Fold this protein.
Amino acid sequence: MTLKQGRLEATAAGFSARARLRAPLLGLLLLAAGLALQWASARSPEIVERRFARGVYPVVAGGLGRVAALVPISIAECALVALGVWLAAGLGRLAFARDRRRRIGRAGARALLGAGALYAAFLLLWGLNYQRQPFATIAGLPVRPSGVDELATLCGALVQEANAAREGLPEDEAGAMRLAGGPREALARTEAGFRAAAARHPVLAGPAARPKPLLASAALSWLGITGIYSPFTAEPNVNLTLPDPALPFSAAHEVAHQRGFAREDEANYLGYLACRLHPDPDFRYSGRLAASVYALNALASRDRAAWERIEAARSPGVRRDLAALLAWAERYRGPAERVSRRVNDAYLRSQGQDQGVTSYGRVVDLLLAERRAAGEPAAE
């Protein structure tokens, strides 16, 4: 080997080493930039609301949603399956590779770069909506701590409304509510509720979104997941194993995420609102049933006697529907569901929802505020 050849090889080795360092460093920079952006946006909700939630996000989500609407199945689900196959194939090759240590190092560097890019994309495509102004502020709803009497009045009203909405709905052979046209047809009707809700709250207006049925619905059931929104494709996705009484509300919840409301408590309230204002009776019932369950769960922890009295007022049809929901939950209960719950809890906390999964109960505060804004009585 000549001196010149040695210098060339040393230079090439230096370039190769720098290239190997570049990917993990870029990944760390992207992660750090994402964390800094999330920290700064949490301190400026008005700016996030004006510049991102009502500026950048509707344009980005609208474009992605129009492309996703061209495909009848979930693009995100297909991409996730493809990613799983690719990772499995990569692990298979790694197991039989002779230069395993070098390959692991390269894979780790790429994984760090991928994690940084994924996190940055998540924030810029949707995740910053966690830091927007609360819906109560946007809508002028008077959220404040409530007494047990006010909560009991809400529960009683919701139970009576659910009982009335349940009357006349079609039933299956077990006597549970059956969706007109079936679950898939119901998904296509979800948008009508948001058109009605947008007439009351223009911030809910947006490009039409048709929730998509998940092919792996059974797998999600074992994880305790009723639906999932993909920010990378702007697709609301719904678990089709859900009993019919719960499916319209779950679909509306995911569309609320697509409209830019990331917080779970707000998506629950907006899902209820879109169902309550929906032109179809099965949607109106599903929203009221879900709201009554949230409210009564909150009451049970504060006044058991009042909970028992109001729960006993449910109609036979509503009781059959609740039994179907309980049977579904029991069928899929297991270790995977508990692990999924812990992961979801950690995710919510990472996005600034300090109460984790217990934030789902805060929908009741919005339900109470809506009643106050309408001037309804605060106590029985």
Q: What stands out?
A: The chain has two domains: 15-131, 135-373. The first strand starts at residue 212 and ends at 213. Confidence is low (pLDDT under 50) at residues 10-15, 356-360. The radius of gyration is 24 Å.
